[in-house]
Very-long-chain 3-oxoacyl-CoA reductase (Helianthus annuus), 259 residues
Amino acid sequence: MPLLIAVKGKSGFSARNTAEDVTKGIDGHGLTAIITEPTSGIGLETARVLALRGVHVVMAARNVEAAAKCKETIIKSCPSATIDVMKLELRSLKSVTNFANEYISMGLPLNILICNAGVTAPPVSLSKDGSESRFATNYLGHFHLTNLLLDTMKNTAKNWRREGRIVLVSSEVHRLTYKGGIIGIYNSFYAYGQSKLANTLHAKELTRRLKEEGADITINALHPGITETSLSRHSNFMSSNHNFFHLGFSKTVIFFSCS
Ligand SMILES: NC(=O)c1ccc[n+]([C@@H]2O[C@H](COP(=O)([O-])OP(=O)(O)OC[C@H]3O[C@@H](n4cnc5c(N)ncnc54)[C@H](OP(=O)(O)O)[C@@H]3O)[C@@H](O)[C@H]2O)c1
């Protein structure tokens, strides 16, 4: 029988709570959110619940056909949902630039940016720009995307007098990295931790800079809990430890303190 951690945090929520519980009573109408790779796992559920609460969701996906199917499924259960699908391949800085330019040219506001996409242990390969593909997907692509959309977010927060939010989905595994921190060598065990450490440091430094500027944007780096998703498809450890991943950590979100 799965053990479910039910200790409530400061928020009053525990691992037993779902995204629907946490957002109950929140009206997201008028807000626009971009979420990277919402075609499976945590991203898909986040997109669904944001749309359910009235947020205009922009699904930034490398597989636009899969994203269109996800959009259809969400709309079936929530006919009033407003969802757009746009192409984004995080392993290519050019694709990220194209995405951001297209988004900016649409003249939409941007209240929420959720950098969710991630890979654990894909076969060793290089991105289109020559970087290790996991570092490129989990960190470099998101770093570039955030930079390109930052002015849009600042303007939205200022014009609407409403706090903007950037969420960088990191992991507790950010602690499992090379002794020297972020370095240019490759070890399959530490490479994921390194990319997630980079997400966390990105959040800390961006928080510092935005505070200095007085921009009304909060950055969170978070560990989403441990849950079995398609993330485990490339990882022997995760895919061979199903019981471990059914221990009930699935709904916990732990925020690192960055603000
Ligand atoms: N699940 C956990 O226990 C856990 C724990 C700690 C942190 N996280 C983090 O939570 C986030 C969501 O993971 P998840 O568990 O929901 O995994 P998931 O179901 O595998 O979702 C990850 C998504 O990232 C996408 N992606 C991979 N490479 C991409 C690229 N180059 N460009 C654009 N999208 C790309 C995948 O798209 P495709 O389907 O097209 O490959 C997939 O939809 C990740 O950042 C992960 O590191 C998860």
Notes: The pocket of NAP is lined by residues 37, 39-43, 62-63, 89-91, 116-119, 137, 169, 171, 223-224, 226-227, 229-231 (CB under 6 Å). The first helix runs from residue 19 to 23. The chain has one domain: 19-251.
